[in-house]
Specification:
Structural class: mainly alpha
Radius of gyration: 19 Å
Distance between the termini: 48 Å
Helix content: over 70%
Strand content: under 5%
Low-confidence stretches: none
Oligomer: single chain
Length: 195
């Protein structure tokens, strides 16, 4: 079922808010209290849950509600720490989602690959399973670094890592995987021809 342009714009804006979150927090803390920013974060995450639910994507909607609950519970202990831990929670959630899909017929990377190429051969299926594990490792390491920045780093370092460097690393992994895939595929095809 198609959904309207205003809903798409809302989803896009919520996505942009999510990506720019660390930078918004950095500048927002000079004008607003941590409590105000935490409430804003919870509203954005819950709006994201509603957006998913409207799209009938109940799994991501439930995850967004869970994330909001974790952030709210953390906010009871320390509003500033809860704000700084949001990137950790997002990375752990992504890692958990990718991990759960390893126990299904189609791991996450295979699902994404099939959007472009519905018919994958056995080699590609095995490769996407391995790549899903690589992404799980990335999300785990990213969560560890984000945790360190949340607990020990200055706001400037926290913002730099969570608002720029982590996205740069995602881009490097995403783009860097393409030549690796081509090389490994060529090697596989050569072995098939030689046998």
């Amino acid at each position: 079922m198609s959904w309207s342009v205003p809903k798409r714009i809302a989803a896009l804006l919520l996505g942009v808010l999510g990506v720019t979150y660390p930078v918004l927090v950095y500048f927002g803390l000079s004008a607003f209290s941590p409590q105000f920013i935490l409430i804003g974060l919870l509203i954005v995450v819950l709006l994201r849950a509603v957006t998913f639910a409207v799209q009938k994507r109940y799994g991501p909607a439930g995850l967004a509600v869970l994330v909001a609950g974790i952030v709210a519970a953390g906010g009871l202990a320390s509003e500033l720490l809860a704000i700084r831990f949001y990137p950790v929670i997002v990375s752990l959630t992504m890692g958990a989602v990718f991990t759960v899909t390893l126990f299904t017929d189609r791991p996450m990377v295979e699902r994404l690959a099939r959007l472009k190429m519905p018919d994958l051969d056995d080699y590609s299926i095995a490769y996407t399973r391995k790549l899903t594990k690589v992404w799980i490792g990335f999300f785990a390491v990213n969560a560890m670094i984000a945790t360190w920045t949340a607990l020990y780093a200055s706001m400037e370092i926290w913002t730099l890592y969570n608002g720029f460097l982590s996205y740069l690393l995602i881009g490097i992994l995403f783009i860097g995987e393409w030549p690796v895939r081509r090389i490994l595929r060529a090697r596989h095809d050569r072995k098939i021809k030689e046998s």
